[in-house]
Amino acid sequence: MATAASQMSDDLSSIFLALADPTRRAVIARLGQGPASVSELASPFDMGLPSFMKHIRLLENSGMIRTRKSGRTRTCVIDGPGLSNAERWLAEQRKIWEAQADRLEAFVMLEQEGRNADSDR
């Protein structure tokens, strides 16, 4: 049975795996402008539709996009929660790094003040 933390970790892994490929990042960037059909999304890339569909399925499985089929057209849209989870994780990491940098800066300033006080004596 997966815990919530391990499920979140698995979700983040699939999101970052999806974002590791430039084709998939380009698809996400294009979908940021609005919904698009798979053929429209595939047109800038020099690859067959079956290969492109692997990228779409990976993005869909990561939870970053949703697709809907109407007739012969499959339309893709950004799915907010997937990207929000990645953004939230990055924000948490940034907060940790900034706190560590602030503590290091305070330590260096304190050391510098101590040296200045010693040299004034």
Automatic annotation (TrEMBL):
PROSITE patterns: HTH_ARSR_2
Span of domain HTH arsR-type: 4-98
InterPro entries: ArsR-like_HTH, HTH_ArsR_DNA-bd_dom, WH-like_DNA-bd_sf, WH_DNA-bd_sf
Matching PANTHER family: SLL0088 PROTEIN, TRANSCRIPTIONAL REGULATORY PROTEIN
SMART domains the UniProt entry points to: HTH_ARSR
GO molecular function, a single term: DNA-binding transcription factor activity
Name of the protein this chain belongs to: HTH-type transcriptional regulator
Classification via Pfam families: HTH_20
Gene3D superfamilies in alphabetical order: Winged helix-like DNA-binding domain superfamily/Winged helix DNA-binding domain
